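Task: sequence design from structure.
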C-alpha cells in the first residue's frame, strides 16, 4: 500500500508540474492522524510559490480517489494524512500473519502424522489425556505452520485386561447409576480392585479377556455397547477441547497384525517360558504365555497400519514420559521388521501433572480425572462469566476453562512434571490463558 500512495502522489505532482525526486511517507505517531502521512507539500511549496497549506490542498485535489484509501485529510501547516479502508487494513493484517506465522521451511513439503490423546474405552478420561491432547494439538499446529501436511491420529485400547475388568464388574457388580459413561467408568474401577484382591474374580476376568480376543458372541453385544458409550463420550470431549482427528486406530485392529508380524519374523524374537520376547536395550514381552498380544505387539501392528493409511515422512507419538522405556525397545523391534518406516518413528514424552498442595481434590478422594478438572475450572469461570456482557455466559465459562488448562500445560516445559494451580490458571492478571483471551478481546474491540 505505501508504494501505491507514493505513485498516486507522484502522479498528482506531475499533473501540477512538479518533478519530485523522492517522496517520503511515514506512519503518524498519533493514529488519529491516519495510517500514512507525507510532508511533501512542505518540501515543494516554495518551488510553486505557494504556502504549504495551499499546496497541500492542490495536491489533494489532484489526487482524487486513491484505491484502498478511505479518506485524505490535511493537517497542521500542510501535512497530508491518508486513512486506509478497513478491507486494506484487514488484508495487511493477514499478510503480516502469513509472514510471521505462515509456512516456513522447517517441515516444508513433509507429511507428518501426529498421534496423541489416546484414551481407552471403558475407562475414564484422565489428566494425562488432557496433557497429551493439549501438547499434541499444539505440536500439530506448529508443524503445520512450518510447511508440513499434518494428519492427527488417535490410538485407543478397545481390547485388553482393562476391558475385561470393566465387563466383569458390569456383569456381576453393576453400579446403580443412570449415567452410562459413569457406570462404565466405575465398573472398571470395581473390576480393577477385585482383580487385585479376589482370586476368583481374577480368574474370571482373565477368562473374559481371552473370550473378547476370540470374539465370543455371548459377550460381543455388551462389549460393543460399552465401547460405543465410551467413544461417543470421547468425541464430545474432543469437540470441547477443539481437536478433530483424521485417523482413529484401535487395539482390536492392531493386535492381530502385531501377532502376524511376530510370527513372520522368528529371527527377531525368541521364546522364554512360553512367552515371546524381544531383546533390545532391555527385554520385553510381546506375546504372553497364553498367546495374547501385549501392548508391544499391538504397537508393531499400529506402525504397519499407520504406514498403510498414510505414507508419511514422520510418525510422531506423544505420551507420558513413563512410556519412554516402552517406546525405546518397541522402536528397536519395528526397525528390524518394518524397514519402510525405518528412521521415521519419533516419540515425544511429557511429564505428569501435579497439583498445588491443598488446592484441589476430587469427590472420590485423591484421584482427579481430566473431566473433573475441566468441570472444576468451568465452575470457577462461571462467576466471572456471569459478570461479563457475554450473550452466553455458560459458553464463555467453558471457553475460559479450556484456555486456562491448555495454557497452564503449554507454558511449562513439556518434558517435566507441571504444577497446576487452579487460581493462577483462571487469573486475569498476567501469565494465564484467560488473560490472553481478555487481551485478544480488547484488541478486537479497539
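Answer:
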Amino acid at each position: 500500500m505505501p508504494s501505491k500512495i507514493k505513485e498516486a502522489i507522484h502522479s498528482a505532482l506531475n499533473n501540477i508540474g512538479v518533478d519530485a525526486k523522492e517522496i517520503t511517507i511515514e506512519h503518524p505517531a498519533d493514529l488519529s492522524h491516519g495510517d500514512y502521512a507525507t510532508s511533501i507539500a512542505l518540501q515543494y511549496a516554495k518551488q510553486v510559490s505557494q504556502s504549504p497549506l495551499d499546496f497541500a490542498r492542490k495536491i489533494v485535489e489532484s489526487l482524487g480517489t486513491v484505491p484502498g484509501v478511505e479518506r485524505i485529510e490535511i493537517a497542521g501547516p500542510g501535512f497530508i494524512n491518508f486513512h486506509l479502508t478497513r478491507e486494506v487494513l484487514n488484508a495487511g493484517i493477514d499478510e503480516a500473519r502469513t509472514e510471521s506465522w505462515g509456512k516456513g521451511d522447517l517441515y516444508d513439503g513433509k507429511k507428518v502424522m501426529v498421534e496423541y490423546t489416546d484414551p481407552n474405552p471403558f475407562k475414564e478420561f484422565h489428566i494425562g489425556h488432557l496433557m497429551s491432547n493439549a501438547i499434541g494439538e499444539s505440536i500439530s499446529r506448529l508443524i503445520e505452520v512450518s510447511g508440513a501436511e499434518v494428519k492427527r491420529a488417535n490410538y485407543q485400547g478397545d481390547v485388553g485386561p482393562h476391558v475385561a475388568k470393566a465387563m466383569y464388574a458390569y456383569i456381576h457388580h453393576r453400579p446403580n447409576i443412570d449415567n452410562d459413561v459413569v457406570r462404565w467408568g466405575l465398573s472398571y474401577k470395581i473390576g480393577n480392585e477385585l482383580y487385585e484382591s479376589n482370586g476368583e474374580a481374577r480368574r474370571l476376568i482373565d477368562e473374559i479377556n481371552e473370550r473378547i480376543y476370540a470374539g465370543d458372541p455371548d459377550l460381543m453385544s455388551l462389549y460393543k455397547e460399552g465401547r460405543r458409550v465410551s467413544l461417543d463420550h470421547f468425541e464430545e470431549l474432543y469437540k470441547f477441547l477443539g481437536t478433530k482427528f483424521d485417523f482413529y486406530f484401535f487395539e482390536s485392529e492392531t493386535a492381530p497384525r502385531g501377532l502376524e508380524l511376530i510370527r513372520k519374523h522368528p529371527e527377531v524374537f525368541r521364546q522364554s517360558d512360553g512367552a515371546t520376547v524381544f531383546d533390545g536395550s532391555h527385554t520385553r514381552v510381546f506375546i504372553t504365555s497364553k498367546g495374547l498380544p501385549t501392548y508391544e505387539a499391538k504397537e508393531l501392528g499400529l506402525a504397519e497400519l499407520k504406514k498403510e493409511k498414510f505414507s508419511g515422512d514422520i510418525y510422531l507419538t506423544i505420551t507420558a514420559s513413563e512410556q519412554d522405556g516402552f517406546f525405546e525397545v518397541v522402536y528397536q523391534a519395528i526397525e528390524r521388521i518394518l524397514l519402510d518406516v525405518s528412521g521415521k518413528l519419533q516419540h515425544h514424552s511429557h511429564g505428569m501433572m501435579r497439583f498445588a498442595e491443598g488446592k484441589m481434590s476430587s469427590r472420590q478422594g485423591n484421584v482427579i480425572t481430566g473431566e473433573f478438572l475441566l468441570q472444576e475450572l468451568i465452575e470457577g469461570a462461571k462467576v466471572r462469566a456471569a459478570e461479563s456482557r457475554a450473550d452466553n455466559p455458560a459458553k464463555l465459562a467453558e471457553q475460559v476453562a479450556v484456555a486456562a488448562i491448555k495454557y497452564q500445560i503449554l507454558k511449562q516445559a513439556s518434558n517435566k512434571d507441571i504444577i497446576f494451580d487452579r487460581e493462577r490458571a483462571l487469573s486475569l492478571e498476567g501469565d494465564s490463558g484467560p488473560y490472553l483471551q481478555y487481551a485478544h478481546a480488547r484488541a478486537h474491540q479497539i
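DSSP finds 16 helices and 14 strands in the chain.
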